[in-house]
Amino acid sequence: MAFKYKSKGKEYTLFTRDVKLKGGRIQTIYFFSARKPKSGKPIDKPDGYTVKVNKRTGLPFLKKA
């Protein structure tokens, strides 16, 4: 079951994706999206993270607790 967060009338779903950095290392990123992104899969909220909201844009993001 994917983690969902409601903010200002919109519902955002948490997604994850592995990206390759310039040094060749693979990094897992987490992001919220109101629509289905081109790549990434929906996931549950990982342990040790909390959801915060950007005051300027109103978009949610994950922060390590």
Structure in words:
- This protein is mainly β and 65 residues long.
- It has one domain (4-64).
- The chain is 0% helix and 54% strand.
- It is built from no helices and six strands.
- Strands 1, 2, 3 and 4 form a four-stranded antiparallel sheet that branches.
- A hairpin with a 5-residue loop joins strand 2 (10-20) and strand 3 (26-33).
Characterize the overall form. Answer: globular
Number of helices: 0
Specify the biggest β-sheet: 4 strands, antiparallel
Radius of gyration equals: 13 Å
Kindly state the percentage of residues in helix: under 10%
N-to-C terminal Cα separation, in Å?
22 Å
Look at the structure and give the mean pLDDT: 94
Low-confidence stretches: none
Summed up, the domain count is 1
Strand share of the residues?
A: over 45%
Order of helices and strands: EEEEEE
Please count the beta strands (DSSP E, at least 2 residues each): 6
* Helix-and-strand structural type: mainly beta
List the helices and strands and how they pair.
Blueprint: E1 4-7, E2 10-20, E3 26-33, E4 41-42, E5 49-53, E6 60-64
